[in-house]
Write a structure and sequence with these properties.
Elements lengths: L5 E5 L2 E7 L6 H4 L5 E4 L15 H11 L2 E9 L3 E4 L13 E9 L1 H8 L6 H22 L3 E8 L2 E10 L1 H32 L14
Antiparallel strand pairs: 1-2, 2-7, 3-6, 4-5, 4-6, 7-8
């Protein structure tokens, strides 16, 4: 196992955060709302090969009244994607530009949301979802995916991988520690009740150590 990129002491437990080097590509492994059509001479960032050219995608969207979002790339010591080029770095004329589209098929959207028409509110909701998809895809492209290992006294308590964003990974690890502590407290309380019923002297009772 690779070295931890971050180690946190939390309530007498050790939490180690690792880079997830075998994470899933979200737009290929997950059931995304959008179809990504990208054209780049060095990278294959699409999740569909339904159309071969940008013109085919545009014509299909217009013909079916589907939603089509421009997709911009910033490439400089890495890759970042955006739905807009209204701000830096995606407004940069040298290292950024449009290189594809995200298509949300009208029929798929109506079926997924149980609607009969694409209202203004539904279109905004779809945009927000696509924006979230792109954010997750950016985390994947940037290697911003992690796993945790929780241990105590050199014994592994729990581990899990595939968290997009380090803060989510750490928060989940802390929730595992909190759960373990609650279990310790519950067990101690049950034991304490038995001691009281059996009139066990205080000097013979174990103390509670969990934090």
């Amino acid at each position: 196992m690779a070295e931890a990129i971050k180690t946190v002491k939390y309530k007498n437990y050790k939490i180690e955060i690792f880079a997830d080097e075998h994470c899933e590509n979200p737009i290929q492994a997950w059931d995304m709302l959008g179809e990504y059509f990208c054209w780049h001479r060095r990278y294959n960032l699409s999740n569909s090969d339904r159309f071969e050219t940008p013109e085919e995608v545009i014509n299909y969207a217009q013909k079916t009244n589907s939603l089509l979002f421009n997709l911009y790339m910033y490439e400089h010591s890495g890759i970042a994607l955006s739905l807009t080029n209204s701000h830096y770095p995606f407004s940069d004329h040298w290292d950024a530009g449009q290189f594809g589209f995200i298509l949300v098929d009208r029929q798929k959207a109506l079926k997924d949301f149980g609607k009969k028409r694409l209202t203004k509110q539904l279109k905004q909701k779809i945009y927000n979802i696509i924006e979230g998809e792109v954010e997750t895809y950016n985390q994947y492209l940037a290697g911003d995916v992690y796993g945790y290992l929780v241990s105590r006294d050199n014994q592994t308590i729990d581990s899990c991988w595939g968290f997009y964003g380090q803060s989510d990974c750490l928060n989940e690890a802390k929730s595992i520690v909190d759960y373990e502590n609650r279990q310790v407290i519950n067990k101690h309380c049950q034991k304490l009740k038995q001691w009281i019923r059996n009139k066990v002297p205080l000097i013979c009772r174990d103390s509670l150590r969990f934090c």
